[in-house]
Every structure is written in C-alpha cells, then in structure tokens.
Amino acid sequence: MFATLKFAALLLAVVVCWATQDYDYNDAEIDEEPTLGDSPYGSLWPLPQKVQISTVVFKLSGASFHIFDAKASSSGASCRLLQNAYRRYDEYIFTSSRKQGQNKSKKALASDMSELQVWITSADSECDSYPSVTSDESYKLSVDSPVAVLKAPKVWGALRGLETFSQLVYKDEYGAKSINRTDIHDFPRFAHRGLLLDTSRHFLPIKVILANLEAMAWNKFNVFHWHIVDDPSFPYLSRTFPQLSQHGAYHPYTHVYTPSDVKMIIEFARLRGIRVVPEFDTPGHTQSWGKGQKDLLTPCYSGASPSGSFGPVNPMLNTTYDFMSMFFKEVNTVFPDAYVHLGGDEVDFSCWKSNPDIQKFMEQQGFGMDYSKLESFYIQRLLDIVTTTNKGYMIWQEVFDNGVKLKSDTVVHVWMGNKVEEELQKVTEAGFTTILSAPWYLDYISYGQDWQKFYRAEPLSFKGTDAQKKLVIGGEACLWGEYVDATNLTPRLWPRASAVGERLWSDRDVRDLNDAYSRLAKHRCRMVQRGIPAEPLFTGYCAHEYKGV
Amino acid sequence: MFATLKFAALLLAVVVCWATQDYDYNDAEIDEEPTLGDSPYGSLWPLPQKVQISTVVFKLSGASFHIFDAKASSSGASCRLLQNAYRRYDEYIFTSSRKQGQNKSKKALASDMSELQVWITSADSECDSYPSVTSDESYKLSVDSPVAVLKAPKVWGALRGLETFSQLVYKDEYGAKSINRTDIHDFPRFAHRGLLLDTSRHFLPIKVILANLEAMAWNKFNVFHWHIVDDPSFPYLSRTFPQLSQHGAYHPYTHVYTPSDVKMIIEFARLRGIRVVPEFDTPGHTQSWGKGQKDLLTPCYSGASPSGSFGPVNPMLNTTYDFMSMFFKEVNTVFPDAYVHLGGDEVDFSCWKSNPDIQKFMEQQGFGMDYSKLESFYIQRLLDIVTTTNKGYMIWQEVFDNGVKLKSDTVVHVWMGNKVEEELQKVTEAGFTTILSAPWYLDYISYGQDWQKFYRAEPLSFKGTDAQKKLVIGGEACLWGEYVDATNLTPRLWPRASAVGERLWSDRDVRDLNDAYSRLAKHRCRMVQRGIPAEPLFTGYCAHEYKGV
C-alpha cells in the first residue's frame, strides 16, 4: 500500500517542525522499523522547505498538458538546458500514458491543469553557465488551475522545481494523472550536496555514470565528486600524458575515459545542475600513476638497495613538480568547475623512511624524523601550482590536520569517523569552509535499514558559533569502489544516498523517520519506474517493478 | 590480471589435497585478503573431483567446432534437453566470436578441437524425466584432439559436464579460443545443492527467476527451493482457490505466478537439471493466506473479544484440514518433484493463547499449557494429508525438535544459527536425512568478502558415525526477501552463492582460499559476460564489464 501514489485523503498541510531529538554521528541503532502510513507530503523527496498542499485536485491530460517558458521569462527557446529539461520531465510525468495514442487536439477541461509555466526572473538565467557553489537553486512553485507557475531566479532553481513538480503528479484511483493545488517555496539548506564515485578500484562504464547523474538530479544532489584515479588504476586519458592511462588503466582502450567521454559527462551533469569536481589524489594513492610516469613515485628500499616497489609521489625531485604543473594545467582546461579535489589522505610514510635519498633530503630541509613535514612540503608546493591555474581546491582533512598553509577559499573535506565534531569545530574555528562525509560512507553495508543511520546524521550538531556553522557548506555521500562496479553500484547507492540527499537539502527539523519512510518508499518506486534499479527499503512492492535482472 | 583467462604457464596438474584446517560455522574472521595469483585450475568452478590438465593446447574454431551426440549414445536428436543444452553452450563458448562472420565451411586444422561428443552411456538417458535427489550427475570428460568426449550415465551428468567443458575454454593471447588437453572425472559430494528464493516478501518477476536458474546451473546447483508464499503476500495463483492470490498477492494480476508461469519455471529448471521444490509454509507465516480464505487463520483476542487480527492457521477446525487436503492435492499435480517443503518454522503462540476456543480445545486434547503440542497436532495431521498425495516432505528443524512423528524419508532442514552441530547430530541420530542452511543465510550482508565465510563452512564437521554423516544429503543457500527484489537480488546472490555451490559439489579438501579466490574472480567475470550481474569480489576488473546499469 505504501508503494502507490495516493493523495486521496490529503488534508491541507503545511510544513511543521517535527519535535525530535538530535542524533549524533555514531548512533547506530537502526533496529526499529518505521511504521507504515502515508505521509501528508506524498512522495516528495527531498522535502521542500515550505509546502502547502490543498485537497483540491486537478487532472493533467497527456494530450494537452505542456511545459512552457513563461512570456516574461529571461530564458527562452534558445536555452537548451531548459528545453532538454522540459522534455525529460514531460517523459517522466507521462511515461506509459501518453504513448497510448490520445487525441492531441483535445482541449483542456475546466478543472484540468493545462500547463506549467517556467519563469526565470533574474536577467541572467545562467542557462549557458556551469553551476557553482554559489548558484541560486531556489524556486517557487504555485500549482493552480489552469496554469501552474514555477518561478526561479536562475535555471538551477527551475531544474529543482521541475523535479518537485514531477513528484507532485500521481495517478488517482482511475489511473488519471492528478495533482493537488500546491504552493511551494524551496531552497537548499546546504550549497554543496555531493556524491563521490570511485572509478579506479573498479572502472565504471559511461552508461553507469550517466544513469547515476540522472538519479542525483532526482534527489537534488549538485556535485559529482569524481574520484577518478587511485592506486589500482588510472582510467583518465590525459592528452598531455597519454602514457598514464596507457599503462595505468586496467585496459588502455576499454577501461579509460577519453577526453570526449569526460566532456560528455560534464555536459550531461551541467544540464542537470550538477558540478563535476574531479579528484586527483596525491601524494598517496598513486600506484597507478607510476606505471606510465617514470620517476614520479618514490622507490622503496629493502635495506641498502631498491626493493622494486614504489611509494608515494617523490617529493624531492624538481621533475615531480614540473610534471604536476603540466598535469594540473590540463586538468584546469578539461574540468570547468572552479574547484579540483587534491586528495592528500592516508599517506604511508614507510617507503619514504626506507629511501636513503629521502632521508638525506629530510636532513637538508631540517624536518628531523617528522615525515608529515615532508608530506606538507609536497602538498604546499602542489597547492601553489594549482593556485596558479586559478582553481580553488578541496583537500581531505589530513592536509589541514598537518598544518599545511591553505588558501582562504579551501574546502576541507572531513571524512574520518572518529572525533567528527571536534574536527568540524577545529576546521571552522580556523575559518575554513568544510564539507562532511564521515557519516556517509555508503560502501559500508550492513543488514537492515541503514538508510536511517545516514538520515539521522546532523552536520551542524558540533559546538561552534553561528559563523562557524555557516562554514559547513554541505556534505558528500561516498561510495568507494572496492566492492562495487557496474553490476551492483546503482542498487547499492539508491535509495541509501537519497537519505543523504534529504539531510542536505531539507530543513534541519525534517527528521521524522516514519514520514521519511513513507515518502522514501514511494520515491524509490518512482526511481525504479524511471529505470534506475533502486533497491527496496523493506518488504513490499512497487506497482511497476524493475524490468531488468 | 586475475580477471583474464590465462592458462599460459599451466603445468601438468592433478587435484591434490590441500592441507588446511577445518573451520567451524561461526568463524567470522574474513579480514585477510586472499593473495592474487592464478590457480592451476583456471576458472573451473566448482572444482571437479578429479582433474588433470596438461600443457598441450588445442584451438577451437567457431566455424568448425560443434557439440554432437556420440553415435553410441542412448540419447539422440530427439532429446530436447540435450539439444537445447548444446545450443546454450555453443553460445556461451563462442559469444561474440562466431558472430563475426567466419567462413562456415572452414576445415578443422590438425591441432584443432573439432567436436565435443556427448555420450549417454546408460540405456535410459532420463532425457524426459525430472531430476530427483537420486539422479546420477556424474560424468567423465576427456579433452583431446581432434575430439573431446563427454561420457555420462544420464543427461544430468552431461549437463554438468557441458558446463565444465565451457569453463575449460579460454582465449589465448591472440584472442583464439583454446582448450588444454584435460581429463576430468566428476561427481557431486552432496546430492542436494539448493538455493532458496523468497517471492512473498518481494515479488520476483519471472525473468529474474529464470536468470537465476541459469546462474544456478553454471554453479552446479540442482534444487530451486521456491519459498513462494509467506506473511506479506501470496503470489501463487491456485486453480482450486484463486481467491488466495486475488486477495493475498500484492496485486492480483501483475504480482502473481499463473499456472503457466509455474509450468515454464519448472520446465526451464528441468532443462538445466534443477528440481523445483515449492514451500507452502504453515501454520505460521500465513498472514497472506487469511486474506482470501475465511476462517483459515486463528482469530486473536484482546481480552474477551476478537481483536480483528489473526494468528497461525486454526488447528481446531475440520474445515482447515479439508482446505489443506484440497490445496495440497493441487500442489501435488502442479509440482512434479517428489518433495514439497511444508515449513513449520517460527510459530508464534501468543494468538493461540489469547483465543478462548483454542484454550478449550487445548484442554479437551489434554495439551495442558504446552502450545508446541498444539502445533505438533496440526503438523501431524498436515503430514498425513500430504502423505496421501504420495509426496515426500521437507520441514524446518522445529518440527523435528518438537517431536512430531515423521515419515522415514522426511528431510529435516537445519537453519538455526546456534548449536548447529548438535542439531545435525540429533537429527541424524534419529535416522533422518537432513540439509543444512544455517551457515548460508545470504540475506545477511556485511562489509567485505563474506563469500569466504560461506566457503569455509563444513557440513560434516559435527560428531557422528559414518552412517550419520551419510544422512546429510546437502544444503541450501537462502536469500530471504526482506531487502531484495528485482533491483538487487541477482548481484547480491552471485558470486556469494557460488561459494556454497563449490562447498556442496567439490571434495571436502577443496578449501584453499587463495586458489578459490583466483578461480572465483574469473568465474564471476564469466557470469558477467554471460549476462548475469554478479558482483565483484574485490578491486579489479573484467575484460567484459556488465552492460546494464
């Protein structure tokens, strides 16, 4: 029952503050099943900031209903982004019903909803821009007969509002597409709502990446953190250094992302209001770089002679920095986003320690035995290099912890599971913006409804001033690649990532598990109907089950 | 590297006994990663009982190679089961290479392998029979140029041998289909190698069931334990009692198995040497039965009046037994297997206790306050009913534990995680055949390589005589349906169930984790190439990644 779209007994409802306690990150109690029962908010996910849904119902006819640019809109037919979105949402809304040959000339009835007008209110719609961390994603949606109006300052808000509109449409008991009179004023709680996918531990075919970008848009995510290379493989085909993927990818042709693949992914994401932030993690996690780039990695020693294996990037050679300069110059041209993620996590010092040249270098630099100083030495030079390309950078928390001097616009990425609140306190006290991933490592699976654990996490529960809290610009769900590839990534990700999506978009007080369960079960069935194999939350069914295997 | 099929450096190898210790059921240490490194047995899975692989390599040409009935075979072109299998394995072996338009008239070269002759040696091939627990699945496979010969007493062994043959074929470094001179003598360690799927908690579309039957055959499973109905839904469309699915299924048309669906599944399974054992679990787990069948379930009471909710099957009414007689008469005609699973697990007594009529009945029968006696009373009568249909039955262990009088050919299904060895001891001491599922609940997921835990379990590690051990006829991997449906069932099942497949087929001493890892990684890539989204064991890649999302 919970899996069908029924608003029948819907009462006038406004967003109220749920009186619930805050949970901290380590709360792992997920035993209790939420009880079923329809949410007054139907299948809306993530829940908009302000919603008023009335009992008045309008019908949408596939023959007459259309999405149009409002006359006063600053964005017209030349805006490919919006025109593409109209087509997409028309298909989502009328899947399987328009196909059945209705009369296209049918006139709308009095109680019909005949069109959705999309009205970009600001002079610059940003139609041809890339989204950024400061993009305005707000929108107002007024659903009334015969015309629904979606107002947004920029196209980004229009995209979010179109998704919301599509989520308001349901089939009544006779199968007629219906929508209730509704007023919504919506905007994201956090500006950075990301998803990390790892294409190094397993290669992900383009098709899988695109499908998941699509699902991200349905969940109002706006950052694809592309952990593109790592120890196991280097699938990024660099124009400047093609040997990196030639020798470092699992396969030089079938398991790489060509320049045109990357371009396609970035444009596909842009059309959905999603930034693509690539991560090129150094100096650790770089084994695959060494296969195509001689002398880049530190040779490890076994006693007095090289062991044949390699460690992190070699921080003492000028050639290293020459390479990084050229490499990140290319990255800067290929990836339009204002930020690049530079990694900097989990550097293993044992190889550096074994190498007599490194030991000598440490001595010369006066680092004593403190190899974190060597790490910082490297990172500092790398950051300076990247700064010259005019990119901002994100880094994993260790770089901050080790006291590297960071630009003021650096984003510190908090991922370690212990002392999360202390870390957030420290980072924001130092005045840095930060994003949170620690509670949202979706690669860790367990039996049962672990979406609740992700859902309960609250990014602002740490102690700090209002100014400090404002520095938390969002978070990212991370699906590391050890155990996922094209075969199982998508169902493992959705709807578990949806829980993070609502936490980052909706109001802080939206945390009622029963209400969330009801909406999320419907939302996941909608994802299934749109072709994404989102896994079930629990026992039950969808009217339209997944058609694949 | 481990994901490609390479026999290049293969030495003459025979099966040796790995010197490994036995692990008990509760061993949960799965931290250590098995090291990579090619197995001398290539991608064989499950490992045959006796294998000799030589370094001599033959080529297979898609244009000239064929699978034929041997002239002396008792089974000819009229055996649809074998002809279907030949076509299937021809496709598996030559996928993507025959399509490329080779010259069909090309003659085999001297070093080519030109054909595989399949020779059924026993007078009755059993081509048109259903497989049973006593079916002979043994086969001998001799791969030599120009002809490979597969000898088997029955078609069942031929099916297993065809799979093994297909697993021996690999591409050499030039992409040429190759096979090494090989001698195999193979037979299963256990006669009952089952997989339980649950179509009640989530409905599984036919397509999903068929795909998984296919994968079962690749892993030499031979029993599909169809847990077809349970509390949440009743998707079995009964001819005699159509109201059961009409009211008890999630949806009366889209979420049911019609008689022709069931027939198709049974025939599809038969063609792969797989038995279909349906489970109709009573008296508990029957909530969905009550929706279409009035008075079947026990009304629960709240104080002196009925609460409106229902408990287990009502054991005191004659109508209950009349219903069961008719129902199982139908089951007997629909499902050809000699066994039906009657469930009998997890009966909750609270509803029976609340009901004054039941209380009175308990008194009349002299059961005192022992409700397990009431349960046994019901089960005993049910077993007698089923016995009259000439079916054998399987039951969950509680029925045995409660002292119900069982027919001597009853199969007791051990599933409870605690005291597994004691239970096996007791059941076999009492002279009953038994199958084991306790270590193989695949619905319980955890982070990491849990296939190793399933792989380590040893069914015969309990204390008992040889005669007792012989009563353990096998086991079943169980994938209960709370958290799986069409979106995620298949990748969650494979290759985790493959671990159970090898444990039940191969010699007891086949338990080297490194060797298993190497073979299983290749086996899972083969499953992916054949179209099943089997999930990865760990970081790595397949030459042909999954094409779906």
From TrEMBL, chains A, B:
<comment type="subunit">
    <text>There are 3 forms of beta-hexosaminidase: hexosaminidase A is a heterodimer composed of one subunit alpha and one subunit beta (chain A and B); hexosaminidase B is a homodimer of two beta subunits (two chains A and B); hexosaminidase S is a homodimer of two alpha subunits. The composition of the dimer (isozyme A versus isozyme S) has a significant effect on the substrate specificity of the alpha subunit active site.</text>
</comment>
<dbReference type="GO" id="GO:0016020">
    <property type="term" value="C:membrane"/>
</dbReference>
<dbReference type="GO" id="GO:0060473">
    <property type="term" value="C:cortical granule"/>
</dbReference>
<keyword id="KW-0458">Lysosome</keyword>
<feature type="signal peptide">
    <location>
        <begin position="1"/>
        <end position="19"/>
    </location>
</feature>
<feature type="disulfide bond">
    <location>
        <begin position="79"/>
        <end position="127"/>
    </location>
</feature>
<keyword id="KW-0443">Lipid metabolism</keyword>
<dbReference type="InterPro" id="IPR015883">
    <property type="entry name" value="Glyco_hydro_20_cat"/>
</dbReference>
<feature type="disulfide bond">
    <location>
        <begin position="300"/>
        <end position="351"/>
    </location>
</feature>
<keyword id="KW-0378">Hydrolase</keyword>
<dbReference type="InterPro" id="IPR029019">
    <property type="entry name" value="HEX_eukaryotic_N"/>
</dbReference>
<keyword id="KW-1015">Disulfide bond</keyword>
<dbReference type="InterPro" id="IPR017853">
    <property type="entry name" value="GH"/>
</dbReference>
<keyword id="KW-0326">Glycosidase</keyword>
<comment type="function">
    <text>Hydrolyzes the non-reducing end N-acetyl-D-hexosamine and/or sulfated N-acetyl-D-hexosamine of glycoconjugates, such as the oligosaccharide moieties from proteins and neutral glycolipids, or from certain mucopolysaccharides. The isozyme B does not hydrolyze each of these substrates, however hydrolyzes efficiently neutral oligosaccharide. Only the isozyme A is responsible for the degradation of GM2 gangliosides in the presence of GM2A. During fertilization is responsible, at least in part, for the zona block to polyspermy.</text>
</comment>
<dbReference type="InterPro" id="IPR025705">
    <property type="entry name" value="Beta_hexosaminidase_sua/sub"/>
</dbReference>
<comment type="similarity">
    <text>Belongs to the glycosyl hydrolase 20 family.</text>
</comment>
<feature type="domain" description="Beta-hexosaminidase eukaryotic type N-terminal">
    <location>
        <begin position="44"/>
        <end position="168"/>
    </location>
</feature>
<dbReference type="GO" id="GO:0006689">
    <property type="term" value="P:ganglioside catabolic process"/>
</dbReference>
<dbReference type="Pfam" id="PF14845">
    <property type="entry name" value="Glycohydro_20b2"/>
</dbReference>
<dbReference type="GO" id="GO:0005764">
    <property type="term" value="C:lysosome"/>
</dbReference>
<keyword id="KW-0732">Signal</keyword>
<dbReference type="GO" id="GO:0004563">
    <property type="term" value="F:beta-N-acetylhexosaminidase activity"/>
</dbReference>
<dbReference type="Pfam" id="PF00728">
    <property type="entry name" value="Glyco_hydro_20"/>
</dbReference>
<dbReference type="GO" id="GO:0005975">
    <property type="term" value="P:carbohydrate metabolic process"/>
</dbReference>
<dbReference type="GO" id="GO:0030203">
    <property type="term" value="P:glycosaminoglycan metabolic process"/>
</dbReference>
<keyword id="KW-0325">Glycoprotein</keyword>
<dbReference type="InterPro" id="IPR029018">
    <property type="entry name" value="Hex-like_dom2"/>
</dbReference>
<protein>
    <recommendedName>
        <fullName>Beta-hexosaminidase</fullName>
        <ecNumber>3.2.1.52</ecNumber>
    </recommendedName>
</protein>
<feature type="disulfide bond">
    <location>
        <begin position="525"/>
        <end position="542"/>
    </location>
</feature>
<feature type="active site" description="Proton donor">
    <location>
        <position position="346"/>
    </location>
</feature>
<keyword id="KW-0968">Cytoplasmic vesicle</keyword>
<feature type="domain" description="Glycoside hydrolase family 20 catalytic">
    <location>
        <begin position="190"/>
        <end position="507"/>
    </location>
</feature>
